[in-house]
Amino acid sequence: MSVRVFIARDAGAVSVGADEVADALSVAARQRGIEIEIVRTGSYGLYWAEPMVEIATPAGRVAYGPVSPDDIGELIDAGLFDGKGHRLCLGPTQDIPWLKRQTRFTFARCGVVDPLSLADYRAHGGTRGLARAISLGVEATLAEVEASGLRGRGGAGFPTGRKWRTVAATQASRKYIVCNADEGDSGTFADRMLMEGDPFALIEGMAIAGFAVGADKGFVYLRSEYPHAAVTFEAALRAARKGGLLGDNIAGSEVTFDIELRIGAGSYVCGEETALLESLEGKRGQVRARPPLPAHKGLFGQPTVVNNVLSLATVPFILAEGAPTYADLGFGRSRGTMPIQIAGNVRYGGLFETGFGISLGELVEDIGGGTMSGRPVRAVQVGGPLGAYIPPSLFDTPFDFESFAALDGLIGHGGVVVFDDTVDMRRQARFAMEFCALESCGKCTPCRIGSTRGVELIDRLSDDLDRAETIAILEDLCHTLKYGSLCALGGFTPYPVMSALRHFPEDFDVGPKAVAAAS
Ligand SMILES: Cc1cc2nc3c(=O)[nH]c(=O)nc-3n(C[C@H](O)[C@H](O)[C@H](O)COP(=O)(O)O)c2cc1C
Ligand code: SF4
Questions:
Q1: CB 399 within 8 Å of CB 412
Q2: Binding site membership of 439 for ligand 1 (Cβ less than 6 Å)
Q3: Do 144 and 320 form a contact (C-beta atoms < 8 A)?
Q4: Is the pTM of this model over 0.85?
Q5: Ligand minimally distant from the alpha carbon of residue 494
Q6: How far apart are the CA of 140 and the centre of ligand 2, in A?
Q7: Could you check whether the bond before residue 291 is cis, i.e. omega within 30 degrees of 0?
Q8: Ligand nearest 438 Cα, by number?
Q9: H helix or E strand, kind and range, residue 222
Q10: Does ligand 2 have an atom closer than 6 angstroms to the CB of 481?
């Protein structure tokens, strides 16, 4: 009988050598006359342990990692194919503490299934959500998504059910579901991981959305930097059409729904939903003034649901397990789980899905294991390039939308980027302004011009001029950006800049007094 071996095939695992490990294992097994079947899965998100090799044993899968091709001979000699012990053995996969401590709702199948096998998807609970939605009907499906408390995972945290209801209630000859897979935030990779590890979950979520609002067409807008995800997702779309999950009469119902994959062109602001719609329509990716909301007049002027990958991919779980299972978990108005991505200078980087409310310190020090460099953590940027820099003194902040907003920050798409004590926070503040200047779509003046003036002001801080006065002007500029910008690119750039100044004044050659005087 052949031994089943599981090795991830997603971009994260491949980038650290998963393909070479699979090849080496296959050659070594052949040379020894051992029959093996290698199943290429998605990743569990334990990137610190990739390339990870799992062996199916009668007691379940046993994991080894990180494995290099050079380890293969030694591993086989130690009894790899029987799941025996070795210095690289992590034990039964589901008992690895880093995985066991998580609550996996959105990512339950990631790492477990063959991402392109619809049979595997169904065997692990896939399509149950869609079947239940169709049996409940439109109104009860909308009510279920509302009751779950699900809020958008793209950054703004808008209630998904409320957005769907608005589109459902808007009369039009055609409606659309647009999935935002632009994933531009620094340190984030959850969308990519999902699309490469469990793409049918996104397809099913979009089909449920289409059913609930009355749309028969969906688009996925994927960033050009994810060619690997594009290949996997295209293959998943073909398999879904073949298997009756897309097309006419999906899942044996009267529902028709299909999806087209579109690739972006490398612009951060095209992640903003209205710039994304412009880009999808073949125009320059510039932000639209609101109203009208995309829910009323979106793609090609029709009512459109725009949702992040994770928001949509979570819906099948909510429908399959019922809204209370999801809503029971969480913190305050942030319900359910958040797939948090721990990155930067950190020992155990990866995706950690857990209920809202976990403290930032637990995430960084305990789960992340502190810095990779071994030096003390000095700052953590949460929520992408527009997120605040948080010092260890605020590590008791719970991870949820409201707590971070109260700090003049955001959780964004759940990215946590760790820096050690060698970081220069003035450089980071300058980078934030420079990023805004580079990525600005140019539609509104505060962002188009203010960001360039912001870079100049931060540069002036290193001169021997009156620093307190420069800081006062910088703060005034940030105020204008925050309240005068048309979208959150300009509106949130003050978060990284002002948090760097507030929490790390020593890096600006100014004492806390100068910052306080200017504030
Ligand atoms: C500059 C900017 C970039 C954004 N980038 C993304 C992105 O890459 N992915 C995403 O889902 N949302 C992004 N958003 C948020 C979207 O505008 C929108 O709120 C989101 O796609 C709605 O989906 P959700 O409700 O499921 O979060 C961005 C917003 C701004 C202002
Ligand atoms: S804030 Fe910047 S990116 Fe947003 S609309 Fe204004 S110019 Fe465009």
A1: no
A2: no
A3: no
A4: yes
A5: 2
A6: 38
A7: yes
A8: 2
A9: strand 217-222
A10: no
Q: Is 342 in the pocket of ligand 1 (CB under 6 A)?
A: no
CA distance 72 to 24: 7
Structure token digits, residue 312: 């949509």
| pLDDT tens, position by position, 471-503 | 999 999 999 999 999 999 999 999 999 999 999
488 lines ligand 1 (CB under 6 A): yes
- Going by C-alpha positions, the residue among 388, 372, 385 that lies closest to residue 420 is 372
Atom 4 in ligand 2: which residue has the minimum CA distance?
487
The DSSP call for residue 364 is: I
Query: Are the C-beta atoms of 53 and 18 separated by less than 8 Å?
Result: no
Please give the torsion angle defined by the CA atoms of residues 83, 88, 90 and 93, in that order, rounded to the nearest 10 degrees: -60
The per-residue b/e assignment along 484-511, b for 16 or more CB within 10 angstroms, e otherwise, is: ebbbbbbbbbbbbbbbbbbbbbebbebe
152 CB less than 6 Å from ligand 1? yes
- Respond yes or no on whether the N-terminal peptide bond of residue 227 is cis (omega within 30° of 0): no
Q: Which residues contact 254 (CB under 8 A, 6 or more apart)?
A: none
User: Among all ligands shown, which has an atom nearest to the Cα of 447?
Assistant: 2
Q: Is 132 touching ligand 2 by the criterion CB < 6 Å?
A: no
**C-alpha of residue 12 to centroid of ligand 2, in Å:** 32
Ligand 2 near 22 CB (within 6 A): no
Angle CA 296–281–161, to nearest 5: 35
Write the single-letter amino acid at 417: V
Q: Tell me which residue has its CA closest to atom 1 in ligand 2.
A: 490
The protein residue whose alpha carbon is closest to atom 8 in ligand 2 is 441
Residue type present at position 231: V
Q: Which residues sit opposite 261 in a β-bridge?
A: 220
pLDDT category of residue 463 using cuts at 50, 70 and 90: confident
341-369 b/e (C-beta count within 10 Å ≥ 16 → b):
bbbbbbbbbbbbbbbbebbbbbbbbebbe
Evaluate: CB of 306 within 6 angstroms of ligand 1: yes
- pLDDT of 508 reads 87
> Could you say which ligand is closest to the alpha carbon of residue 450?
2
Are 335 and 356 spatial neighbours (Cβ–Cβ below 8 Å)? yes
Residue 464 banded pLDDT, cuts 50, 70, 90: low
> 10 Å Cβ neighbour count for 383?
26
Ligand 2 near 270 CB (within 6 A) = no
CA 463 to the chain's CA centroid: 39
Contact assessment for residue 307 and residue 180, using Cβ atoms and an 8 Å cutoff: yes
Alpha carbon distance 25, 8 (integer Å) = 13
Tell how far the Cα of 122 is from the centroid of ligand 1, in angstroms: 30
How far apart are the CA of 204 and the centre of ligand 1, in A?
Answer: 21
- The per-residue pLDDT for range 243-302, each reduced to its tens digit, is 999 999 998 888 999 999 999 999 999 999 999 999 999 999 999 999 999 999 999 999
